[in-house]
Amino acid sequence: MRKKRKFALLTQEKLDQLVTFAIECAASNDPSKTMKKFLTTMSVIAALCGAMVATAQAEVKVASVSMTDLNIMFYKRVDVEASLKKQENAIKDEINARQEKLKTLLEEGQKLQKQMDPTLSEAAAKKIREQAASINNELTAEQEELKTFVQRRQIAFREIVRRELALISKELHDTVQAVAEEKGYDFVIDSSALSAGSGYRVFPFVKSNVDITAAVLEKLNAGAPAGFDAQAELERVRGAAQQQTEQSEQPQE
């Protein structure tokens, strides 16, 4: 446990004594002595205030961490992202398969319509109409089922994403807290935090010597698989973001 330093507190009693002393100085008939005593009084007040502030600053330890970089370089985030992408692709494949079935039914219905001819016998025409009606009913049912399927899958997938990201976020914050407690920090600020209104950094400047991102990342990735390169992942994500920004800034033809 960190040993606390003595706190130089400017109490109300001390302040009253100093004010009384200053009044007595002002009532003196000797101007030179009055000024000397007054300056002495103010020096004492300034010294006490300075000691109080300096002591308070010495007691509070502040660190910074980039939560954005930690999230990118956390190996579990990469695993979760890959798993979610796989699930998303599986949903897309199933939707595509259902859409292909709808396309096939639609084409069959169009073929039957082309077979309708005034020269056909009543029996033949009736058979085609019945087949077309059956296909149309099936097509309508498949469309409704596809709509319901997509809605269910979207809701379920959003919940999976929310739950997985919440677990990642909790582990990030728990690890930051653990490292901060180990190192005796009182506050940890997120140096990567952006203002919701302007998009600028909440903390425009943070000294690198108070950054504990590397220490937190080491603890986070203690169980990472062999060969996992956190720095390479950071560069990949940043590169992709930069490329996307450049593409969005290109003039539309």
Quick take:
The protein has seven helices and two strands; from the N terminus they run ααβαααβαα. It is mainly α. Strands 1-2 form a two-stranded parallel sheet.
What does this structure look like?
With 253 residues, this protein is mainly alpha-helical. It folds into two domains: 12-59; 67-249, no CATH class. The protein has seven helices and two strands. The protein has a two-stranded parallel ribbon. Helix 4 runs antiparallel to helix 5 (122-183) and helix 5 packs across helix 6. The model is unreliable at 1-15 (pLDDT under 50).
Topology (SSEs and partners):
Layout: H1 12-26, H2 31-59, E1 62-65, H3 67-73, H4 75-115, H5 122-183, E2 187-190, H6 213-220, H7 230-249
Parallel strand pairs: 1-2
Helix pairs in contact: 1-2, 4-5, 5-6
* pLDDT averaged residue by residue: 82
User: In which order are the strands of the major sheet placed?
Assistant: 1-2
- Helical region count? 7
Order of helices and strands: HHEHHHEHH
For the structure shown, list the relevant keywords.
253 residues; mainly alpha
